[in-house]
Specification:
This protein has 6 helices and 15 strands. By secondary structure, the protein is an alpha/beta fold. The radius of gyration is 20 Å and the shape is globular.
């Protein structure tokens, strides 16, 4: 009971902090009233958070784990929101804190999970500020359009100049998954690229299941088992005993025809695509914690000295990733329920509870809690893809 009371207290405190923080997030101008930040040039290395030829923190592996250097695939990774500014609706490419979060938390903690299967390409982009997901309006939609235009150009550059015809994964989180959903429709669905896409891990943005039930997507399907390819894998994580908020969810998802036509629609009350990352089934199922082969967290140098009270500002706060933890087996169990959400036991380690969002939302740990399961599964899907293509080639021969 004491633990439950403590969690309730932390939840109330997080809601209070969020309510106090919200007014500081809203840009004081309309999108059209101010020139947006300069666009990235994806021919320049500075426009990428990760490229295979330049040192970056996607090379980290969990303690005791070796990364493969014989990569048969590529990974196009779209990072989540790291910009909480109100001076612009979109992040400047040189925003110190936004880039610090991407480089020192997201690249090691999320993108690195794929370094066993592919070369990682992660573009910087003029991400929309966090506020756009709290209150939908025309300025917020314009900011998301601008952010997506960068992601689209980065992907086109990746395919034309860097991928060299190799099979690839798409991976993303949060705002990155918002853009990845649209990218799948506008560049992958029904195209030759679809035959080269191994899988899309579009995690943490409530991918509507209805998009696969009404012929919006036809060639791409939700994953239903660990070795499916050409598919979408997605989940949204909540602590057991909590329910995802719907009424207050103002975030929107793009619905389009793939030819520049479409509109933004509210995502609330739409059942999401979901996969249980412990076992990789898509129907309601509870996986015991013992089947979770390892949660992993980023290890920061001098974490006690990090000025976390400045998180979300414009300047760096002193984040310096020095590695990843050893895998922590059985950190949480995971139950996929009929509502399409993933519910876990409360994490054991404090590294996985410091940034729990209101309502028991474990959004910030969608990757961390299942890191080794995702890592192993990416290898399984790559192996399945290569085997199917060898079999297809032998039949043709």
């Amino acid at each position: 009971m004491a633990n439950g009371i403590a969690r309730l207290g932390r939840g109330v405190a997080s809601i209070v902090r969020l309510v106090m923080f919200l007014p500081k997030l809203r840009p004081r101008h309309r999108f059209d009233d101010k020139e947006p930040p300069s666009p990235p040039d994806y021919a320049e290395a500075a426009s990428w958070a990760a490229l295979p030829e330049q040192p970056n923190n996607t090379a980290f592996t969990p303690e005791g784990i070796q990364a493969s250097r014989d990569h048969a695939a590529d990974v196009f990774f779209v990072h989540p929101t790291s910009y909480f500014g109100s001076e612009s609706w979109n992040a400047p490419l040189d925003h110190e804190h936004a880039n610090e979060v991407v480089d020192e938390l997201v690249m090691p903690g999320q993108a690195s999970v794929f370094n066993g299967v592919g070369r990682i390409f992660a573009p910087r982009y003029r991400q929309a500020t966090f506020y756009v997901f709290l209150k939908a309006n025309d300025s917020g939609r314009a900011a998301l359009e601008l952010a997506y235009s960068d992601v689209l150009r980065a992907f086109d550059h990746f395919i034309e100049h860097r991928n060299e015809g190799r099979p690839f994964f798409i991976a993303s989180h949060s705002q990155g998954s918002c853009h990845a959903m649209r990218l799948l429709k506008e560049r992958i669905e029904g195209t030759d690229l679809g035959r080269r896409m191994i899988a899309a891990y579009a995690i943490g943005f409530r991918f509507p299941l209805e998009q696969f039930e009404n012929d919006y997507f036809t060639s791409i399907r939700p994953s239903s088992r660990a070795t499916d390819t050409g598919c979408v894998i997605a989940w949204d994580t909540y602590a057991d005993g909590h329910t995802p908020g719907q009424r207050g969810d103002r975030a929107e998802i793009w619905y389009g025809d793939g030819n520049a036509g479409g509109c933004w629609q509210r995502r609330a009350y739409r059942k999401p695509v979901s996969t249980n990352p412990i076992g990789w089934v898509s129907e309601p199922h509870r996986s015991v914690a013992e089947s979770n082969i390892g949660a992993v967290h980023t290890v920061l140098d001098g974490e006690d000295a990090v000025r976390w009270n400045r998180f979300g500002g414009g300047k760096k706060i002193g984040l310096n990733a020095v590695g990843l933890s050893a895998p922590l087996p059985a950190e949480v169990s995971a139950e996929l329920r009929s509502d399409g959400y993933l519910y876990t036991s409360w994490p054991k380690q404090p590294q996985f509870t410091r940034a729990v969002m209101p309502g028991g939302n474990l959004h910030n740990y969608d990757y961390d809690l299942f890191y080794m399961n995702i890592r192993e599964n990416a290898e399984e899907r790559l192996d399945a893809y290569l085997a199917r293509n060898r079999e297809r080639g032998s039949r043709v021969g």
